[in-house]
Specification:
By secondary structure, the protein is mostly beta strands. It has a single domain, classed as Jelly Rolls (Sandwich). The protein contains 1 helix and 9 strands. Strand 4 and strand 5 form a beta hairpin. The chain is globular and about 45 Å long.
Length: 108
């Protein structure tokens, strides 16, 4: 759905917690660089269940400007909670952590 990529949530650090039944899940994080048109120093680390799944990730370097990008990960929920954390690694005046949307789908 292209509408999911028209806005972005930004911050130095963002944490999302979801109450879910125990089991395996596919986590899709939707990204798009909708601000920077000629490059960006914005970097972030992304953690799922405390495990770093993206390190120094730069949306523009991977996809360019105004291009949808989806990263997919598998994880397990064993305590009824799923946590996804975005941590900016950019200059203090920048908001390195950013994402457009999160999709969580049960695998089993």
């Amino acid at each position: 759905d292209p509408e999911l990529f028209r806005s972005v949530r930004m911050g130095e650090e963002m944490v999302y917690r979801f109450d879910l039944p125990d089991g395996e899940y596919e986590v899709r994080i939707l990204f798009a660089e909708i601000y920077w048109e000629t490059g960006s120093a914005e970097q972030q680390d992304v953690y799922i269940q405390g495990k770093r799944v993206l390190r120094a990730f730069n949306i523009f370097d991977e996809a360019g400007h105004d291009t949808a990008l989806v990263k997919t990960f598998r994880t397990k929920v064993a305590d009824g909670k799923l946590e996804i954390r975005f941590v900016g690694r950019s200059l203090p005046m920048h908001s390195g952590a950013r994402a457009c949307a999160i999709e969580i789908l049960p695998i089993s």
